[in-house]
């Protein structure tokens, strides 16, 4: 088992190197670099001295050197904990990400717990009471959630909040609390803003999970071992939770590892942009647009890392809950 | 043999499935009795209502089936006592306390698909433990004053006792190295072993009756013989009744004392095993018996089969449901008049117009 985990970690390391290299290549693919865009901007504003300054920057960031050299230089520093400097903000990537990391993780974990705590019971209810009124209502909402993009729902709710509730709805804090130290007021203010991303994620994030839970559970409930458990004299509740749900939950564990854990860092970037949430998602999207390559590269490496760790965790948890796939 | 003691009475039982395409009468007026310590065989083609009848005894007819008429009476007797209470099982709440005590505790059941009748994530021991911890009671040494009644003077088994019971049961059903096998997961066991585990679960609570729903259909013949032996041995030791459902006539001849033949939800004939095999009355029973392959019969001839197809359950034939396939079909009678359930001689019952004055 330990051997297996070690092997997976080695693969993970190789994978990260490959992914970082490829993403570096892709960022480099469009003609020009961050500075060519910058120069265009400055020139458009009629800034004559731009050309000269740009050359300084080019040397400072090493953009004049060959591609491989840039990559190796960045990687070497990366392992030492220096992720490079953002061109856009002219600050270290590490600081920029660090500022937003706490909020991103808090938001993502809250979303995660919220969606799962809603989705699993609703999915179970939907399957157990198949075709009941409750099941029909849940199904309609989960299809809406599946069909509607999160950012659209976010926009609708924003509109509703501003016009009907007359509430300032973007961001996570009101103006006076943004830079204030933590206090009861600040927490209440946070909760007052948090309901919008919470609803967006509850509707869009749970839809798919509810459907998967419902489908799997229905299939499991038709299995002979369910009838056999009932014939043993077990109460219906025990049959459903101990035998059926326990068997039907496996695909959700995979989803948890491969989708939910990586999303802890990104969150839903589009929703975050619409709602102006201070998470890493919008930062990442912006860095890709601006060819802010160290920023983008760092984000990608961390997403990959979380994805790999998430998958490994999912596999370990699966092996733990299901003896059929337990590894020797 | 002692006098026949009634255990379960099925009276005019009707089970209907209301599905989109119409109503299926899965069980249509079935009446028979099961006696303590005896084996009743139920035979018939697939889909004739055998399994549904069995599930009605445990009040677990699958959705959307409903018992629409008739009843299942269970003559309940506390262990060691001679007093019987009659319980109408078909009136019980399907998830209620009483029926759950009966299920598994007093009437055990084993199924057709041993491969998938054990929950894959739990080992053999936990399955047995589930049943044992629900139903099996240990005599309590010290009986308090208020607990003078014998029934109450029991306690639940402990974890360690339950494990010992599990190992003992696995040994009794012939699983080698039960101390190790008790921790095996279903996927580590063969089909025959899984069916043995199922039997061990069913018998671990010392039920008064075992419902065996085609227990050997999915197993190969040598395993089948072993499983049947185990069931017979257990029956002898525990004075347990068995309702044995099968479509294998050879197996039923070996196991049952009395046989009920079912066709399209109706019982067409009921008699002792000897009478069914040597003096079948109903044309369907005769046709079934003719379709048994026999060793030594001239090779090259085709095995007899029953003419025609099983009718559409939504559109049953009028009169006698078997008339379109019946070799003794009497035009003008069988397609118009439904036969009634009649006693011919002794315990030989049949439902056929050949034996009625019409």
Keyphrases for this structure?
heterodimer; A: 328 residues; mainly alpha; MetI-like fold; two-stranded antiparallel ribbon; 2 strands; 75% helix; 1% strand; B: 358 residues; alpha/beta; Rossmann fold; eight-stranded mixed sheet; four-stranded antiparallel sheet; globular
What does this structure look like?
The complex is a heterodimer of chains A (328) and B (358). In chain A, 75% of the residues lie in helices and 1% in strands. Chain A is mostly helical and 328 residues long. Chain A has a domain at 101-279: Orthogonal Bundle (MetI-like fold). In chain A, a hairpin with a 4-residue loop joins β1 and β2 (91-92). In chain A, α5 (93-128) crosses α8 (184-221), α9 runs antiparallel to α10 and α13 crosses α14 (280-289). Chain A is globular. The N and C termini of chain A lie close together (7 Å). Chain B contains ten helices and 14 strands. In chain B, the strands form three sheets. Chain B has an eight-stranded mixed β-sheet, with helices on both faces. In chain B, α6 runs parallel beside α7. Chain A binds chain B through residues 223-225, 227-236, 243, 246-247, 321-324, and chain B through 58, 60, 62, 95, 100-105, 108-109, 111-113, 116-121, 123, 127, 130-131, 134-135, 185, 187, 198, 201.
């Amino acid at each position: 088992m330990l051997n297996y985990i070690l092997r997976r970690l080695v693969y993970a390391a190789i994978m990260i190197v490959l992914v970082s290299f490829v993403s570096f290549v892709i960022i480099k693919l469009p003609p020009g670099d961050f500075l060519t865009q910058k120069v265009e901007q400055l020139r458009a504003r009629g800034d004559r001295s731009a050309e000269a300054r740009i050359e300084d920057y080019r040397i400072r960031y090493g953009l004049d050197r060959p591609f491989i050299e840039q990559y190796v230089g960045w990687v070497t520093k990366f392992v030492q904990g220096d992720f490079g400097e953002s061109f856009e903000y002219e600050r270290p990537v590490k600081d920029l990400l660090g500022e937003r990391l706490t909020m991103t993780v808090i938001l993502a974990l809250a979303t995660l717990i919220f969606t799962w705590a809603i989705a699993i019971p609703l999915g179970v209810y939907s399957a157990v009471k198949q075709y009941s009124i409750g099941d029909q209502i849940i199904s309609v909402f989960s299809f809406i959630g599946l069909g509607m993009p999160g950012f659209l729902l976010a926009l609708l709710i924003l509109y509703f909040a501003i016009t009907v509730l007359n509430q300032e709805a973007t961001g996570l804090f009101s103006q006076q609390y943004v830079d204030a130290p933590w206090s009861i007021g600040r927490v209440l203010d946070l909760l007052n803003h948090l309901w919008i991303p919470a609803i967006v994620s509850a509707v869009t994030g749970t839809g798919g999970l509810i459907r998967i839970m419902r489908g799997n559970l229905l299939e499991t409930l038709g299995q002979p071992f369910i009838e056999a458990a009932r014939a043993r004299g077990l109460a219906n509740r025990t049959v459903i939770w101990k035998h059926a749900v326990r068997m039907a939950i496996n695909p959700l564990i995979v989803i948890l590892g491969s989708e939910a854990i990586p999303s802890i860092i990104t969150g839903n970037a589009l929703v975050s942009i619409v709602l102006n949430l201070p998470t890493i998602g919008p930062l990442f999207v912006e860095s890709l647009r601006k060819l802010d390559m160290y920023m983008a590269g760092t984000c990608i490496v961390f997403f990959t890392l979380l994805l790999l760790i998430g998958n490994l965790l999912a596999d370990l948890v699966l092996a733990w809950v299901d003896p059929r796939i337990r590894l020797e | 043999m002692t006098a026949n003691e009634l255990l379960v009475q099925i009276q005019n039982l009707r089970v209907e499935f209301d599905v989109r395409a119409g109503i299926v009468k899965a069980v249509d007026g079935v009446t028979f009795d099961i006696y303590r310590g005896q084996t009743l065989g139920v035979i018939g083609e697939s889909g004739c209502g055998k399994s549904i009848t069995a599930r009605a005894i445990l009040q677990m007819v699958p959705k959307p089936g409903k018992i629409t008429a008739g009843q299942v009476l269970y003559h309940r007797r506390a262990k060691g006592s001679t007093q019987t209470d009659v319980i109408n099982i078909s009136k019980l709440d399907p998830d209620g306390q009483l029926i759950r005590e009966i299920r598994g505790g007093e009437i055990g059941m084993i199924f057709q698909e041993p491969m998938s009748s054990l929950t894959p994530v739990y080992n053999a021991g936990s399955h047995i433990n589930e049943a044992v911890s629900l139903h099996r009671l240990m005599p309590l040494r010290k009986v308090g004053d208020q607990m003078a009644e014998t029934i109450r003077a029991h306690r639940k088994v402990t974890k360690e006792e339950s494990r010992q019971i599990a190992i003992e049961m696995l040994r009794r059903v012939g699983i080698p190295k039960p101390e190790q096998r008790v921790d095996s997961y279903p996927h580590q066991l063969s089909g025959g072993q899984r069916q043995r585990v199922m039997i061990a679960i069913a018998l671990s609570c010392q039920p008064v009756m075992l419902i065996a729903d085609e227990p050997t259909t999915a197993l190969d013949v040598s395993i089948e013989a072993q499983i049947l032996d185990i069931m017979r041995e257990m029956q002898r030791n525990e004075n347990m009744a068995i309702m044995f459902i099968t479509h294998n006539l050879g197996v039923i001849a070996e196991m049952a004392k009395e046989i009920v033949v079912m066709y399209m939800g109706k019982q067409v004939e009921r008699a002792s095993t000897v009478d069914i095999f040597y003096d079948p009355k109903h044309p369907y029973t005769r046709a079934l018996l003719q379709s048994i392959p026999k060793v030594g019969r001239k090779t090259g001839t085709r095995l007899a089969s029953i003419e025609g197809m099983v009718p559409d359950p939504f559109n049953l034939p009028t009169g006698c449901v078997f008339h379109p396939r019946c070799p003794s079909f009497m035009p003008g009678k069988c397609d118009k008049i439904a036969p009634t359930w009649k006693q011919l001689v002794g315990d030989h019952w049949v439902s056929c117009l050949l034996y009625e004055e019409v």
